[in-house]
Structures are given as C-alpha cells and as structure tokens.
Amino acid sequence: MATTPAISEDVLAKYEPVIGLEVHVQLLTASKIFCSCSTRFGDPPNTNVCPVCLGLPGALPVLNRKAVEFAALAALALGCRINEVSIFARKNYFYPDLPKGYQISQYDKPLAEFGFIEIELNGSKKKIGITRLHLEEDAGKSLHEGFADSAHKTAIDLNRTGVPLAEIVSEPDMRSPEEAYEYLTRLKEIILYTGVSDCNMEEGSLRCDANISVRPRGQKEFGTKTEVKNVNSFRFIKQALEYEIERHIGVIEGGGRITQETRLYNAHEGRTYGMRSKEQAHDYRYFPEPDLLPLVVDEKWQASIRASLPELPEARRQRMMKEYGITAGDAHTLTLTRAMADQFESAARTAKNPKRVANLVQSELLGRLKALGLELEQSPISMAGVTASADLVESGAISGKMLKDLYDLCFERKQDFPAVYEAEGRPEQSRDTSALEKLVDELIAANPKQVEQYRAGKKTMIGFFVGQVMKASRGQANPQLVNEVLTKKLER
Which end of the chain has less Cβ packing within 10 Å, N or C? Predict the structure, then answer.
C-alpha cells in the first residue's frame, strides 16, 4: 500500500488538522423530488425517467411533500432550526449526467441551519456544528466499465437523476480523522433512527466529501484546503484524511505550497490523486428556480413533523440505563439500531431481570451471530426467546452451561429457544440434595490437599470444588445449592 514519505511524530505535532464534512443522504421516498418516477435502486438503466428528469423543454417540476418532511425530520433530529421560508435555486454547471445543465438545489436560503452533533472520543465530549441542511436533486451516474469492445466508452444512467437528497454540511470543527469518523458514525446512527434514509453506502444512499487543511498549532487562519470526494466507507474516509494530513505537512515542510483541488482516494493504494484544480472558485451562477415557489414550512407543519420525531439514540441510552439498570456499554450495544432497541425493550418489560437479558444478548446471541456473519434479523433466537432463557436462568431452573448448550442447538436446528427447550424435554438443574451431598463427599475424599488448603484459610479453593462438582454433574447441578453444600461440608 502506497503512503506518503514518513513524517516524524514531532513534525506532525507541530500542525493542527482542520476538517469539515459534506454528507449527502438519499431520502427514502418512493418517488423522486420533482416528479413521480421511482427511486428504486437496481432497475435497468434509464427506465425510471420522464420528461422532468430528462430536462425536456416544457417539463415543470412539482415538489415532493414527503421529501420535505423527511429532510425536516432529519434536521430536527440534528438540532437544526427549520427556516419557515427557503428557496430553491438553479446550480448551473455542465456534466454529462446532468441532462438539464443545472441542478435544482438550495443556496443562500436553505431548509435548515445551526445544528450540531455531540461526539465522544477518549472520554471527552465535543459538539460538532452543522452549518446547514438543504434539499437538492441528485445527478445521474456515469458508467466507465463493463464494455468489452472498448476501454474508452462511458455510458450514462439517468435513473438517479432527480432522486431527493438532504445535504448536511458541518462546520470545520473536527481536528482529527478519528473525530471525523465518530461524527459520521453518530450522524448515520441518528439518520437511521429517524427512518428518513437507509444510509446504504454501497447503493449510494450516503456519500461523503471531506474538506481538509492543516495549520501550525496556535494559528487562527485556516490553511489551503483540499476536498476528497466519492469515498464509499467511513473507514476509507478516515484513511484518506490520514493520508492527506501527512501529505499536506510533507509539502509545507518541504517548502512547497498546497494546491486547492479536488482529489480522489484509491483504497487499494492507500493514497489520494488530484482530480481537478479549484484554484479559482467555480461560478455556479446560482439564481432562484423560476419554476418553483418559495418553500414555506410554517409552524403548524413543523409541529406535525416534530411530533413524529422518535426518541434519539443518546436520550434512549440514558433512559434505558435508568429503567433497566444496565451499564453504559450495554445501552450502547443495545441501541446501535432502532430495531434492536425496540426488540430489547419489548422483551425487557416482561423479563424477571432485564440486565440478565442484556448480558445474554451481548455474551451469547450477538457473539454467535457475528461468528456466523448473520444480522439480528436472521437470528433463530428471537428477543422473546432470549427473555425466556434469561428467566429460566434467573429462577435457577437451568444453569449457564445448560443455556449455552441449548443456544448451540437453537443455531444448529435454526429454531427459537422455547421450541428447542420443549423438544429437549424442558431440562432442569438437579435439586436432589442427597445425590449432591454424596457427590461432594466423594470429591472431598479424593482431594485432601485442596481441602487442607481451604481449611487453612485459602477460601478461594471453593471455586475448584464448585468446578469439579459442575463437571461431574455435567452442568446439571444448581450452582447456588452446590455452594451451600460445599461450604457446609468444608467448614466441618
């Protein structure tokens, strides 16, 4: 993997990165923003198009109300102020996959402004400002590969043209690639909770452009920035930023000057390449879209949108910690997706011990799913099944060892826990005290050295005997009863 020339930690420490991110989120509407064409992904090229998408003479745009509501919902979730009046504008530039020769976007009067996302890194919290969230239409897609007869052909697919986007522009508040990664992670999490987008990066539902510059620490003025475009994963964005920071510092330390430009990241080589110069700002000749009236989202409409705002991840974590007595780590894992959080809470409300349910989800369920490359939705054990198993352990009916064995059977048979438990004859831990006492007597007689150590004050030796009893009973003995019987026998 190619990298920049090695730069010492001392030299790196002299400079401070300044990072801002522009994120495009495709809104999960069934139709496009200004026409009724489908937004469905994967259809044959140029089948979801109409005169409006294609920019044919006389075709007029009609704004999709649902796209406005989705964008406003996302803005509220990000702490933005919704502007009662916003204006659509024409952003004029020529590109082969932009059939009208302009993109309908918002410029000086966006839908929403002044939001933030709070991130946490190494135990410290920091607010990253959001400058604006505005609505715009997507362009088409240029296809540069897959042509057997020539390596120099490019095809155009206009299915994406007119797909609704919310562009979320951050303040240049991030000071490391790690902060940028955390910001994107939190942003995606919040957007997914609102349900306004599926944020599928592989299908282009979430795209990020990163602006990066460096400056000597203590300097207030920003350095010359470069923009890294079209990076298709958060991990690669972090790597691209790391590369650019070292490249900038290397150029400056070598007496050179950073060129303001757009660059592309090659993940296979681990480096960026210049795409086009931005030495002089591109004049997009913005002007108000004459075919669309100003967008008015009045207080009544805002209130109805706000009423559909779900409980957001961080607030939900804090509440769940209080209600169910779970740790911050438990709460974080269980709220990674809204579906998981909903399922857990539904189960936890009926469980004898919600914390035990949380522990089993993490220690037994998610571990098995990860090992098999499965998602939660593909789990043979439902959250209700986890609750049923947790209640059995809580009551002492089954041991932890028995639970593990039953979970293994669930995954092997692809059946839920209650079905497997019934099929196995509802196994329970042995509560036969006489049989247990006989077993303990045999183990004490067979291990005089360990008995002597225990009676000499090494009380931790009881763990050895508990293990031996559980092994001999093949996990069927009740651990609490085992401890009671052992303590009584060893204290004689």
Answer: C
Model-wide pTM > 0.85: no
Q: Strand locations in 122-234, DSSP E?
A: 124-137, 141-143, 155-157, 164-170, 206-216, 226-231
pLDDT band at residue 8 under the 50/70/90 scheme: confident
Q: What is the pLDDT of residues 193-251, one digit of tens each?
A: 999 999 999 899 999 999 999 999 999 999 999 999 978 899 999 999 999 999 999 99
What whole-number distance in Å separates Cα of residue 403 and Cα of residue 381? 12
Give the burial string for 188-200 (b: 16+ CB within 10 Å, else e).
Answer: bbbbbbbebbebe
DSSP-derived secondary structure for 298-359: -HHHHHHHHHTPPPPHHHHHHHHHHHH---HHHHHHHTSSHHHHHHHHHHHTT-S-HHHHHH
Domains of the chain: 9-301 (no CATH), 313-423 (no CATH), 433-490 (1.10.10.410)
Helices (H) and strands (E) in the chain, counts: 18, 16
Using CA atoms, how far apart are residues 344 and 321, in angstroms rounded to an integer? 13
CB-side neighbour CA atoms (13 Å) of 35: 23
Judge whether 429 and 423 are in contact, CB under 8 Å. Answer: no
Tell me if residue 108 falls in helix, strand or coil: coil
Per residue in 350-400, pLDDT (tens digit) is: 899 999 999 999 889 999 999 999 988 999 999 999 999 999 988 888 888
